[in-house]
From TrEMBL:
Gene3D superfamilies from the UniProt entry: Cobalt-precorrin-4 Transmethylase, Domain 1, Methyltransferase, Cobalt-precorrin-4 Transmethylase, Domain 2
Protein name as it appears in the record: Precorrin-4 C11-methyltransferase
Any Pfam family the entry gives: TP_methylase
Keywords attached to this entry: Cobalamin biosynthesis, Methyltransferase, S-adenosyl-L-methionine, Transferase
Domain Tetrapyrrole methylase, chain residue ranges per copy: 13-218
Region forming the signal peptide: none
Family label: Belongs to the precorrin methyltransferase family.
Species for this entry: Microcystis aeruginosa NIES-3804
Length: 262
């Protein structure tokens, strides 16, 4: 398979999930589009510069950390109407905390074509770093992706953190570093204090750091390391190193469509 593709991009906005930070975790499709784009509008506070290394030398690079949606959307509309291919490069996966819904609505209203190219989410990258399966038979079969309520995004009342913690599932906590004391208090209502928590700062970046600590020390670690952003917390029974369980999928006594009993 070659990563080079000589075909030109159609004028449109291409939303790309850049993943947590490692350029090698870009999808092949995302990499090809980045190589050919005329304009790249990127979240510079969340996307490391290494992601942009193989872009065209003449591509217009527009950072967005200091501008508003009211500036970003007209800019993208203008470039597409001028016949250019625009990448809207965002961190992680587009389906999680990306604020793309309002962008899509405004582009649709302006009759601007767009595509979505998904990326790897930080929770997947962290699980891989830890060599961890988050759904272990008889132990945990549910993954919850959530956040702590903040000024920019209020939480629905039915998704309050303590009520989600009651499931004792593999819980991936985003955007929580600035509210970590409150988060720890709510998690301890249902998880035991000794429950292990993986804390990862800037996953996939050159200065990445990862710790595994008891839940009772999660807030203390966060304050000690001065973690205020770009931090993911993974609370999961799978971290407690329980062994002896196995899936029935490949068990010799388990039959299915492709492996019926003889």
């Amino acid at each position: 398979m070659t990563l080079m593709d000589s075909s030109a991009l159609s004028p449109a906005v291409y939303f790309i999930g850049a993943g947590p930070g490692d350029p090698e975790l870009l999808t092949v499709k995302a990499y090809k589009i980045l190589q050919k784009a005329d304009v790249i509008v990127f979240a510079d506070s969340l996307v490391p510069k290494q992601i942009l290394e193989d872009t065209r030398k003449d591509a217009e690079l527009i950072p967005t950390s200091s501008i508003t949606l009211e500036e970003i959307i007209p800019l993208m509309i203008d470039r597409v109407r001028r016949g250019l291919a625009v990448v809207r490069l965002q961190s992680g996966d587009l389906s999680l905390y990306s604020a793309i819904q309002e962008q899509i609505e405004l582009l649709t209203a302006a009759d601007i074509p767009f595509q979505l190219i998904p990326g790897i989410s930080a929770f997947q990258g962290l699980a891989a770093k830890l060599a961890l399966e988050l759904t272990i038979p008889e132990l945990v079969q549910t993954i919850i992706l959530t956040r702590v309520e903040g000024k920019a995004s209020p939480m629905p009342e039915s998704e309050e953190l303590a009520s989600l913690a009651a499931h004792k599932a593999s819980l991936c906590l985003y955007l929580a570093a600035r509210h970590i004391d409150k988060a720890q208090e709510k998690l301890l209502q249902h998880y035991p204090p000794e429950q292990k928590v993986a804390v990862c700062f800037r996953l996939g970046w050159p200065d990445e750091k990862t710790w595994v600590v008891p839940l009772s020390e999660m807030a203390k670690l966060t304050h000690r390391e001065n973690l205020t952003r770009t931090t993911l917390y993974l609370i999961s029974p799978a971290l407690n190193q329980i062994t002896g369980t196995r899936s029935q999928l490949y068990h010799p006594q388990h039959s299915h469509l492709f492996r019926p009993h003889p």
